[in-house]
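Here is my example:
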Amino acid sequence: KEFWRIVIKEYGGLSKLLSIGFVTLIGTLLEGINVGLLVPLLETIGSSNQEEGHWVSRAFAQLFSAAGIPFNLGSILAALALLVLIIAGLKYLRLVLVEKATADFTVWLRTTSMDNLLNADLEYFHQEKLGALADTLTTQANRAGASLSSVIDMIALLGLMISYLIAAFLVAPLLAVVAFGTALALSFAMQYQIRRARTIGATLVERQN
Protein backbone atom coordinates (compact mmCIF):
# COMPACT_ATOMS: atom_id res chain seq x y z
CA LYS A 1 0.00 0.00 0.00
CA GLU A 2 2.80 2.42 0.91
CA PHE A 3 4.65 1.48 -2.27
CA TRP A 4 1.70 2.35 -4.50
CA ARG A 5 1.12 5.58 -2.58
CA ILE A 6 4.67 6.61 -3.44
CA VAL A 7 4.29 5.57 -7.08
CA ILE A 8 0.94 7.28 -7.65
CA LYS A 9 0.97 10.32 -5.37
CA GLU A 10 4.59 11.30 -4.85
CA TYR A 11 6.01 10.10 -8.15
CA GLY A 12 2.85 10.91 -10.14
CA GLY A 13 2.91 7.73 -12.18
CA LEU A 14 -0.85 7.25 -12.43
CA SER A 15 -0.99 8.31 -16.10
CA LYS A 16 1.80 5.90 -17.02
CA LEU A 17 0.14 3.06 -15.15
CA LEU A 18 -3.17 3.78 -16.88
CA SER A 19 -1.45 3.80 -20.28
CA ILE A 20 0.18 0.46 -19.56
CA GLY A 21 -3.12 -0.92 -18.26
CA PHE A 22 -4.99 0.22 -21.38
CA VAL A 23 -2.46 -1.36 -23.74
CA THR A 24 -2.50 -4.55 -21.65
CA LEU A 25 -6.31 -4.67 -21.66
CA ILE A 26 -6.54 -4.27 -25.44
CA GLY A 27 -3.90 -6.93 -25.96
CA THR A 28 -5.69 -9.30 -23.59
CA LEU A 29 -9.02 -8.84 -25.38
CA LEU A 30 -7.38 -9.49 -28.74
CA GLU A 31 -5.76 -12.62 -27.31
CA GLY A 32 -9.21 -13.89 -26.40
CA ILE A 33 -10.55 -13.12 -29.88
CA ASN A 34 -7.53 -14.85 -31.37
CA VAL A 35 -8.31 -17.99 -29.39
CA GLY A 36 -11.96 -17.79 -30.43
CA LEU A 37 -11.00 -17.69 -34.11
CA LEU A 38 -9.42 -21.11 -33.78
CA VAL A 39 -12.91 -22.63 -33.52
CA PRO A 40 -14.14 -21.58 -36.98
CA LEU A 41 -10.68 -22.32 -38.37
CA LEU A 42 -10.81 -25.93 -37.20
CA GLU A 43 -14.40 -26.31 -38.37
CA THR A 44 -13.55 -24.86 -41.78
CA ILE A 45 -10.58 -27.20 -42.18
CA GLY A 46 -12.84 -30.07 -41.16
CA SER A 47 -15.42 -28.96 -43.77
CA SER A 48 -18.08 -28.64 -41.09
CA ASN A 49 -21.40 -27.02 -41.93
CA GLN A 50 -21.14 -23.47 -40.59
CA GLU A 51 -24.87 -23.21 -40.06
CA GLU A 52 -24.78 -26.21 -37.71
CA GLY A 53 -21.37 -25.46 -36.24
CA HIS A 54 -20.34 -24.02 -32.90
CA TRP A 55 -22.06 -20.81 -31.81
CA VAL A 56 -18.66 -19.09 -31.77
CA SER A 57 -18.26 -19.89 -35.47
CA ARG A 58 -21.73 -18.57 -36.22
CA ALA A 59 -20.98 -15.37 -34.29
CA PHE A 60 -17.78 -14.78 -36.26
CA ALA A 61 -19.61 -15.57 -39.49
CA GLN A 62 -22.18 -12.86 -38.72
CA LEU A 63 -19.40 -10.45 -37.81
CA PHE A 64 -17.54 -11.08 -41.04
CA SER A 65 -20.79 -10.79 -43.01
CA ALA A 66 -21.59 -7.44 -41.38
CA ALA A 67 -18.13 -6.19 -42.38
CA GLY A 68 -18.64 -7.39 -45.96
CA ILE A 69 -15.85 -9.98 -45.72
CA PRO A 70 -16.37 -13.53 -46.99
CA PHE A 71 -16.18 -16.06 -44.19
CA ASN A 72 -13.84 -18.73 -45.49
CA LEU A 73 -10.48 -20.28 -44.71
CA GLY A 74 -8.52 -17.47 -46.34
CA SER A 75 -10.28 -14.68 -44.45
CA ILE A 76 -9.98 -16.53 -41.15
CA LEU A 77 -6.24 -17.06 -41.65
CA ALA A 78 -5.83 -13.42 -42.66
CA ALA A 79 -7.70 -12.29 -39.55
CA LEU A 80 -5.54 -14.55 -37.37
CA ALA A 81 -2.35 -13.21 -38.96
CA LEU A 82 -3.52 -9.62 -38.50
CA LEU A 83 -4.40 -10.26 -34.85
CA VAL A 84 -1.03 -11.90 -34.21
CA LEU A 85 0.77 -8.87 -35.67
CA ILE A 86 -1.34 -6.42 -33.65
CA ILE A 87 -0.88 -8.43 -30.44
CA ALA A 88 2.89 -8.59 -31.03
CA GLY A 89 2.96 -4.83 -31.56
CA LEU A 90 0.95 -4.21 -28.40
CA LYS A 91 3.23 -6.52 -26.39
CA TYR A 92 6.27 -4.64 -27.65
CA LEU A 93 4.62 -1.31 -26.85
CA ARG A 94 3.75 -2.52 -23.35
CA LEU A 95 7.33 -3.70 -22.85
CA VAL A 96 8.66 -0.28 -23.89
CA LEU A 97 6.20 1.52 -21.60
CA VAL A 98 7.04 -0.72 -18.65
CA GLU A 99 10.80 -0.33 -19.14
CA LYS A 100 10.46 3.43 -19.51
CA ALA A 101 8.25 3.68 -16.40
CA THR A 102 10.68 1.51 -14.44
CA ALA A 103 13.71 3.55 -15.50
CA ASP A 104 11.98 6.87 -14.81
CA PHE A 105 10.80 5.68 -11.39
CA THR A 106 14.29 4.47 -10.48
CA VAL A 107 15.83 7.78 -11.56
CA TRP A 108 13.20 9.68 -9.59
CA LEU A 109 13.93 7.64 -6.47
CA ARG A 110 17.66 8.27 -6.75
CA THR A 111 17.16 11.98 -7.43
CA THR A 112 14.76 12.37 -4.51
CA SER A 113 17.07 10.47 -2.16
CA MET A 114 20.07 12.53 -3.25
CA ASP A 115 18.16 15.78 -2.78
CA ASN A 116 17.16 14.67 0.72
CA LEU A 117 20.77 13.82 1.53
CA LEU A 118 22.04 17.15 0.23
CA ASN A 119 19.49 19.01 2.35
CA ALA A 120 20.07 16.91 5.48
CA ASP A 121 21.90 18.18 8.56
CA LEU A 122 25.48 17.12 9.18
CA GLU A 123 24.38 15.23 12.29
CA TYR A 124 22.50 12.80 10.04
CA PHE A 125 25.74 11.77 8.30
CA HIS A 126 27.46 11.21 11.64
CA GLN A 127 24.75 8.72 12.60
CA GLU A 128 24.42 6.87 9.29
CA LYS A 129 26.96 4.53 7.72
CA LEU A 130 28.34 5.33 4.28
CA GLY A 131 27.45 1.86 3.04
CA ALA A 132 23.81 2.32 4.07
CA LEU A 133 23.62 5.62 2.19
CA ALA A 134 25.15 4.07 -0.92
CA ASP A 135 22.74 1.15 -0.64
CA THR A 136 19.78 3.56 -0.49
CA LEU A 137 20.90 5.32 -3.67
CA THR A 138 21.69 2.18 -5.67
CA THR A 139 20.42 -1.20 -4.51
CA GLN A 140 17.15 -0.10 -2.92
CA ALA A 141 16.25 2.15 -5.84
CA ASN A 142 16.95 -0.67 -8.31
CA ARG A 143 14.86 -3.09 -6.25
CA ALA A 144 11.96 -0.65 -6.12
CA GLY A 145 12.08 -0.20 -9.90
CA ALA A 146 12.30 -3.97 -10.42
CA SER A 147 9.34 -4.44 -8.05
CA LEU A 148 7.25 -2.04 -10.13
CA SER A 149 8.10 -3.95 -13.31
CA SER A 150 7.42 -7.33 -11.68
CA VAL A 151 4.01 -6.28 -10.33
CA ILE A 152 2.96 -4.92 -13.73
CA ASP A 153 4.06 -8.16 -15.42
CA MET A 154 2.15 -10.23 -12.86
CA ILE A 155 -1.02 -8.22 -13.45
CA ALA A 156 -0.61 -8.59 -17.23
CA LEU A 157 -0.13 -12.36 -16.92
CA LEU A 158 -3.15 -12.61 -14.65
CA GLY A 159 -5.29 -10.75 -17.18
CA LEU A 160 -4.00 -12.98 -19.97
CA MET A 161 -4.81 -16.10 -17.96
CA ILE A 162 -8.32 -14.83 -17.25
CA SER A 163 -8.80 -14.07 -20.94
CA TYR A 164 -7.77 -17.58 -21.97
CA LEU A 165 -9.99 -19.12 -19.30
CA ILE A 166 -13.00 -17.11 -20.45
CA ALA A 167 -12.35 -18.02 -24.09
CA ALA A 168 -11.92 -21.68 -23.17
CA PHE A 169 -15.11 -21.62 -21.08
CA LEU A 170 -17.09 -20.14 -23.98
CA VAL A 171 -15.72 -22.73 -26.40
CA ALA A 172 -15.77 -25.83 -24.16
CA PRO A 173 -17.11 -25.22 -20.64
CA LEU A 174 -16.38 -28.72 -19.30
CA LEU A 175 -12.79 -28.75 -20.49
CA ALA A 176 -12.31 -25.22 -19.11
CA VAL A 177 -13.55 -26.32 -15.69
CA VAL A 178 -11.18 -29.30 -15.75
CA ALA A 179 -8.26 -27.08 -16.79
CA PHE A 180 -9.07 -24.51 -14.11
CA GLY A 181 -9.35 -27.19 -11.45
CA THR A 182 -6.02 -28.68 -12.52
CA ALA A 183 -4.33 -25.28 -12.46
CA LEU A 184 -5.80 -24.57 -9.03
CA ALA A 185 -4.56 -27.91 -7.67
CA LEU A 186 -1.09 -27.29 -9.10
CA SER A 187 -1.08 -23.82 -7.55
CA PHE A 188 -1.89 -25.20 -4.09
CA ALA A 189 0.76 -27.89 -4.52
CA MET A 190 3.38 -25.31 -5.48
CA GLN A 191 2.44 -23.11 -2.53
CA TYR A 192 2.80 -26.11 -0.22
CA GLN A 193 6.24 -26.91 -1.61
CA ILE A 194 7.31 -23.26 -1.27
CA ARG A 195 6.20 -23.12 2.37
CA ARG A 196 7.93 -26.43 3.02
CA ALA A 197 11.17 -25.16 1.44
CA ARG A 198 11.01 -21.99 3.55
CA THR A 199 10.52 -24.07 6.71
CA ILE A 200 13.46 -26.31 5.85
CA GLY A 201 15.62 -23.26 5.08
CA ALA A 202 14.69 -21.58 8.35
CA THR A 203 15.48 -24.80 10.24
CA LEU A 204 18.89 -25.08 8.59
CA VAL A 205 19.70 -21.47 9.44
CA GLU A 206 18.73 -22.02 13.09
CA ARG A 207 20.92 -25.13 13.31
CA GLN A 208 23.90 -23.31 11.82
CA ASN A 209 23.49 -20.46 14.29
